[in-house]
Design a protein that fits this description.
Helices cover 47% and strands 8% of the residues. The chain is mainly alpha-helical and 232 residues long. It has one domain: Orthogonal Bundle (hpI Integrase, Chain A), CATH 1.10.443.10. Helix 2 crosses helix 6, helix 3 crosses helix 5 and helix 3 runs parallel beside helix 7. The longest helix is centred in the N-terminal third of the chain and has 16 residues.
């Protein structure tokens, strides 16, 4: 979507320069950060994520907490059903590729993730949405984006300068933070992170490689040369 929007934006900007439209602002296209694996995604610290979840409405808070615990794309978690909770795992699906194909994976949940999924799937039919809005509707991009903006505004209204949450933060920021912390803080290898969160190894290398070298150096320093056996 962002690639398409950049092409459209370039055409509209040319129309502005040639004088074909009256108001450039009316033609400006903004980025779509809520479901885009880009290098410009806003990183939220654990404290910022906690504050944002606390400022959100209950249903939105549960949705954001689910993103934080799984590293899922917002669209994946929005599409998940109660029947896709499988004990310690959650099945997520995503359409990917030039000819979009439906791909699925299982996300291994920790204790907090298991508790959240059990609470959200309780008394629901297998086909029912796992996470829903305050109106009981499945989440849509415009809905979760609006809830995040409201939570950011509510938090920043009383937050001090260093505690403020960037205005460009989005639901996708929770996925970005999860992948970054798995690589940097917890030292999980990129292949496992890819299997858990869904991006390709190429995407991890391109967008998150800056978090890998320190963990890699630590792992490479562990092996010790085994002295060759001396002949008797």
């Amino acid at each position: 979507m962002n690639r398409l929007s950049r092409a459209v934006s370039a055409g509209l900007n040319r129309a502005v320069r040639l004088g074909h439209v009256g108001n450039p602002v009316a033609w400006r296209i903004e980025a779509l950060p809520d479901d885009d694996e880009s290098e410009t995604a806003v990183f939220l610290s654990p404290a910022q994520r906690t504050a944002l979840i606390a400022a959100a409405a209950p249903q939105a808070a549960a949705f954001l907490r689910g993103l934080e615990l799984t590293g899922a794309r917002p669209s994946e978690l929005a599409a998940a059903t109660a029947g896709e909770v499988d004990g310690e795992r959650l099945r997520l699906t995503h359409r990917k590729g030039r000819r979009p194909r439906l791909r699925s994976r299982y996300v291994l949940l920790d204790e907090s993730g298991i508790a959240l999924c059990k609470a959200q799937s309780k008394d629901k039919s297998p086909a029912a949405s796992l996470s829903v809005s305050a109106k009981g509707e499945p989440w849509r991009r415009d809905m979760w984006a609006a809830e995040v903006r409201r939570a950011i505004t509510a938090h920043n209204r009383t937050a001090h300068r260093h505690a403020r949450i960037p205005a460009k933060a989005s639901a996708y920021s929770f996925r970005h933070a999860r992948i970054s912390e798995l690589l940097q803080v917890y030292g999980v290898d990129p292949l496992t992170v890819a299997a858990q969160t869904g991006p390709s190894l190429r995407m991890i290398e391109r967008s998150y490689y800056k978090f890998i070298p320190s963990a890699m150096r630590e792992k490479l320093s562990r092996p010790k040369a085994t002295p060759a056996r001396q002949r008797a």
